[in-house]
Each structure stands twice: as C-alpha cells, then as structure tokens.
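Field reference: sequence -> structure
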Amino acid sequence: MQTAQLVKEASPIIGLVGGTYFFTDSTVARGKELGLDGMRFYYIGRGGVLGDTEWPVVVSAFGFFAPRMVEKFWDSARQTIEPRTAGHAYVECARDFGRENFTEVEGLAEYCAAAEKIVAAVDPAGLTLFAAHSAEPLAEDLPGRAAQLTTLLREHRGSAHLVALIAVGLEPRIADALASEVSWKFHGWTLDDGPAPTEGDRGLKLEAEAITDRIVQRAFGVLDDQEQQALLTGLQGMSHAMPGAWSLKDAPN
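Structure field:
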C-alpha cells in the first residue's frame, strides 16, 4: 500500500479512537476526584505534559483554542492541581480507556509495534504537544499501550496540522470555523470573533490539509506492508470496540 493511502485510511480512525477518552464518564470522574470539572481537567490534563508553564505557552501548543478560554481554564485549574500531576493523571486516563475497551481486540501487539515505529520516526521539531506527550512512558499492558499510542498518533497529526496552517497563512480560528460549528464553539470562539471564512480561506485549508498529510507521511513511511496492515487491523479492531464518541456535555457555553 502506498503511504499516502495508509494515512488516508488511518487518520480518521486515529482521530476518533485517540480522542474519545477526553470526556468519557471515567475520565470526567477522575477529574472530579482531583477537584476539577470536565473542561478544567481537559485543559490542564492534556496540557499538563508541558509542565508548570504560563497559559500563553499552552495557547501556542493547543493552537486552535481561543486564548481567553485557555487562560480561564488553565489558570483556574492550576489553583487546584500542579500541571504535571494532572498531565500524568490524564495520560493514565487514556491508558485506562484502552483497558476498559480493548482487552478483547486481536492484534494489539502487532499494532503497538507498528505505532511505536511511527512515533520513533517522527521529527518533533515544531510539534510541541506531540513532543510533550511522547516523553511520557508507555503503558506496559497492551490495551493501555495501544490506547496511549493512538492518542500519540492523534497528537502527531494535530500538531502537524497546526504547523501546516501557519505555513499557508490561515489562522487556526478560521480553519476551525470551516470545520464545524461544534468544533468552533468547543474551542471557545464566538460570532464576535469574525470575520467569516472566505472562499480563499477554503482553498488555504485544503492546501494545509495536503501539507499535513505530507508531514505525517514521513513518519508513516517507515512501515513495511505487513506493519501497515497491522496498524490498520489494530485501528479497525479498536474502533469496533469503542463505546461511542465523546459528547460535548462539558463544553463551555
């Protein structure tokens, strides 16, 4: 299989499987144990791997989120918990998601081997959130490891897409508006943040998507045919075992 086709088939599944744990009941419950609501645990958990830093650093790594939203949730969450502690807890939530859902999925050993090979091949330059997450140790058990690696692959594409948008001159906010109203709202934007996207913006977004694919393909290109199939088989198995995509019940109003 050509690497471009592999990325085309794998990326949507990675996006779903790698991010579903963000707002599952178990993740939200873990946040509450730490004194955090769903959104605050999301911000300081997902960003906590960056360390005890200031909110503008988190803005630069998250990319798509309204700065005022990052400042609000990051700074208020820091009053309750140290970011690194939250980051470790959030990574463990990803692992637990795998343990809860993927224990019966076949081929996880082969999937993990292929995914680890991709992660090892990534040039982390400019991919801040991916780099921070990749520094966390991988779970020793296969279901937890598979879920964590899928989240890493998700952060890889997300970070690459942010770089691509900057390269073509398209504000992440505008790209968000072109994606969906739900995504735009979740990331903290409102109608007052205008302007509305133009047809030219749509063209830039397509250009950025192509660049994103090229960046991602460099790492995926290390897989041979057998490893490619192992990656897809593992992703398909996990997607079929999923409890359902996360909802925006904890999204800001």
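Note: The chain is about 70% helix and 0% strand.
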